[in-house]
TrEMBL record:
Substrate binds at R338. The modification N6-(pyridoxal phosphate)lysine is found at K194. NCBIfam families: PhnW-AepZ (TIGR03301), PRK13479.1 (NF010006), transamin_PhnW (TIGR02326). Pfam families: Aminotran_5. The keyword Isomerase does not apply. GO terms for molecular function: 2-aminoethylphosphonate-pyruvate transaminase activity. This is 2-aminoethylphosphonate--pyruvate transaminase. Involved in phosphonate degradation.
Amino acid sequence: MTTINYKLLTPGPLTTTDSVKAAMLVDHCTWDDDYKVITKRLIKKLLQLANVSEETYTAVLMQGSGTFGVESVLTSSVGQLDRLLILTNGVYGLRMAEIAQYARLPYDVLEFPYNAVPDAQVVAEFLDTHPGITHLAMVHCETTTGILNDIQAISQVAKARQLTFIVDAMSSFGGIPIDVADLNIDFLISSANKCIQGVPGFSFIIAKKEAMLATKGKAISLSLDLYDQWETMSKDGKWRFTSPTHVVIAFEQALQELEKEGGVKARYARYQANMTQLVSLFKANGLVAYISEARQSPIIATFQLPSYEIDFNEMYEFVKSQGYAIYPGKLLDLNTFRVGVIGEIYQADIERVSGIFDAYLTNKKIER
Ligand SMILES: *Cc1c(COP(=O)(O)O)cnc(C)c1O
């Protein structure tokens, strides 16, 4: 077995606790009640985390990574007589457009720059000049850059026009408080391996019951049929097809640990403290954050490399040899890299990482 002794500063999969990993040392069967009640408990807990009532909201788990959840929602809720507007300011927004394209859904894309949030005024104007749009989809934390989008402002635009509001909250749910009911969100998508701090293997969808019921018969894919999955699972906690048992058990452990930490608020505070420290220590190292402070999420940050020549791969190997895995940048026009602060990461880690970068960059300057 290969032993890996570095922590992940990546936005999922991320560094989990030993207890979450240990929870997976069980081979659980799937047909009996012991197992099905776990799924039922998870659904209940997710609704509690979202702070929504079981009368108006419901939840469902879906095999696969986060994208499978997004694809399930888009292809099960947007019919041929509907029209979807996708707001983008990063690759995850663009991925929704790709899903719509593959599925031949009727859709429009409204693009914003990667370092700016979708502007509610612009969105409202677009909607008013493009009647016929029934669904509005956007990303909450755009993991591409780490920018935190203003779902509150856009939700008002959506609500005023009675649009179905779809939010990809993959990298924020569980780590940033989200007022799902207040924001009138119809479908929120997240996954096991992000802020809940579980391992990869399934996504989950929190949906308004009414919106969920409206997906009946609309899906164009069997395995991603949201309604069918939900109907089967809400009966007795049964997954339609093989469920990722180890992931499910680890997820329950992760949820318990989230509760123990003090819930979403406490986790948010830890992530926020990590990020504030990261941005300020890196600034002292000469590494400038790409996103403005006001829009910087407490999840992941993009940094511009200093003007002198730095090879990301070489830097990556050095940082990894010192115990941390970072993430490449996703911007085409700038030499950047990303550092995530979610998972089992604390301020001591941030200090250590800053020291590692300081050593690397100082050395590079001397070499020159
Ligand atoms: C992680 C992530 C996804 C899903 O990515 P997968 O690789 O399919 O898990 C979708 N949207 C956002 C914003 C993400 O951060």
